[in-house]
Design a protein that fits this description.
Largest sheet: 5 strands, parallel
Strand order of the largest sheet: 6-5-4-7-8
Distance between the termini: 23 Å
Number of helices: 12
Number of strands: 11
Domain Tetrapyrrole biosynthesis uroporphyrinogen III synthase: 23-264
CATH topology of the largest domain: Rossmann fold
GO molecular function, one term: uroporphyrinogen-III synthase activity
EC number: 4.2.1.75
Protein name: Uroporphyrinogen-III synthase
Keywords: Lyase
Shape: elongated
Amino acid sequence: MSTPLPAVMAGRTVLITADRRSDDLAEAFARRGAMIRHAAAMSIVHHSDDERLVEDTRALLADPPDLLVVTTGTGMRGWLEAADVAGVGEELRRVLGAARIFARGPKAKGALIAAGLPVEWVATSETTAEITDHLLAAGVVGSTVAVQHHGSGSDGLDEALTAAGARVAPFVVYRWGPAPDPAAVTASVRAVAAGEIDDVVFTSAPAVEAWWAVAEAVGVADEIVRRSHEDVLFAAVGPVTAAPLLAKGVDPLVPERSRMGALVRAVLVHHGDGAPDSAG
């Protein structure tokens, strides 16, 4: 018979702002005793809703890239799935496999390896800025660069590569959309300001920015900053997600590894847990 996990989150209310994998986060905290509130700050428009992705993919197959930049594992898998549905999956894998491939972090690398695509270089900081610096230092003049973007788009990468003499083919496999329940987001910022929330968890920088914009619009941003210094724990999945919080005066808890499971673990340890746990 298994030993019950310590209920280190008992009596605490956790606000989850993610759309993707929110159920995993909720389960991980709930089984340690937490009460869960969910207010997705943004929605995700997936590849299956975007016919342009398939059109752009067919154009790439007709004019193969010299370099491929992959920014997210989710996006890479989604791109291949969309290509498979369109009947060009095998051809896309062949074309991409002939390019020099650069990954923004280990999750992007993992998706590429799983697809049988060789990775030449990985940005250890998991930032677009590191990829940009690396490619510009290597030189891209005259190269065709296919870029699989995350939901926020280019982050300046396309523009920098174009200015350096490359021809860029961007692919946005999923896009950030508006909050699925704006009223829930508004209620959540008020709840944090009122001290009704103990922990606020973020898994993407765009979600931080969208959630904070609501807090500012409602007029509770200053109170939230004050709460973050006293009795509310903010947690971010990695340094990229933490950056907009730091810019607002909130110093979030950030795990050593930018993983969902590591984020959960860091929050549990912060609250005194010593037992293994993970959201995957």
